[in-house]
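Hello support,

Our group uses your service weekly, and this is the first time we've seen a run hang past the timeout. The protein is Cytochrome P450. I'm not sure whether the cause is the sequence or the server load. Input pasted verbatim:
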Amino acid sequence: MLAKSLFALDGQRWRDMRSKLAPTFTTGKIKIMVPHMAEVGQNWLKFLSKNVSDEAVDLKELAVTYTADAIGSCVFGVNYNAFENPNNTFMTMGRRLVGYDFKRGMKAICVIFFPEVVKFFKFEWFDRSLVDFFCNLLKEMMDSRKKSGQTRKDFLQLMIELKEKGSVASDNAEDEKESKELGGFEDSQLSSGKFDFSDVDLYSQAIGFFVAGFENSSTQISLACLELAVESELQHRAQAEIDQVLKEHDGKLTAEALKKMVYLESIVQETLRKYPPAGGLVRSCTKNYLIPGSNVRLEKGTTVMIPSYSLQNDPKYFPDPERFDPERFCNEDAHHKLQFLYTPFGDGPRHCIGMRFSHLLIKTGLASILSKFEILPCKETVYPPKIDPIRMPLSSVGGVQVKLQERKVN
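Update from on-call engineer: The timeout came from a worker crash unrelated to the input. Re-ran successfully.
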């Protein structure tokens, strides 16, 4: 099943699929999903208001619930409110889907270093019952919308449009331009004729997006909160900005409000710098290449690993890398200077197509909790966090233990 997801495809089918999915991941399309994320954020705040105490809480676990609910709403079109219903089937099956153990770790190593072995033995990455659950859920949602004639502003609706029409229309010229940049290919490089996007293709993309976003986004939210708990000045600066922007927007967390939270944006970027989701990027050479200034020759087909974590924590490029410093990204041309060094979502043609969605999901989660709660260190807090050396994507051992205190906001 997931062999058909964008992350697993290669060659011509990958080029065609990425080009067709690109319009669903533009800023314009993702902005319309902010209300779904914000609604989940409100559910999170209501839960915390009723349950917060002087005891330590695992912010990673709370962020997992927020992320799962938000992805469920934006991608699958379902609203289970896992804060009030933690044992709902979607949450339970989702945890199993992204769960990590030794067996899955060995499969990951094989996928990276021995892809031909994986193809030959046809390894099943996920338990069939898990895949069937999510496929049946998607089919149920699609059938319901078709029967009722109702639509919803989410990824599922965009993928239904792609399935029925063979493409997703851009909203404006800027959207069209961004779509082409995300797709990364000229028309001459794509297959001619009608694009075939079956139910199985749709299921594969939706499940793939869930798996890719679930752990990554929750880890980034919790580690950002940990850094802000330790550095209270940074937290208060972020909260002052959030308070001011929300005041200007009648207390509503909208796409426009989030865009104005520029310091919070720098916090997200610095968290991704210090704790990149993937420790390294894996790429395959498409042609023979001699590394300039050396006698190292890479043959076509060679697998190359780029050590993202090492580069982003190298004092040569990021002075005092252990220090959490959002100011690194307050300069508008920071990304231009850091090209190919700062790659939390990859780079080149295979960079993460869902990076804008993930980024907005993280930012919405942080804006939500910081707007109403002070995050404080406690005796259970472990800092710096202990990072699991073998888990992919990056994850902290033992979660993120902090205290929460409700703010008095005027």
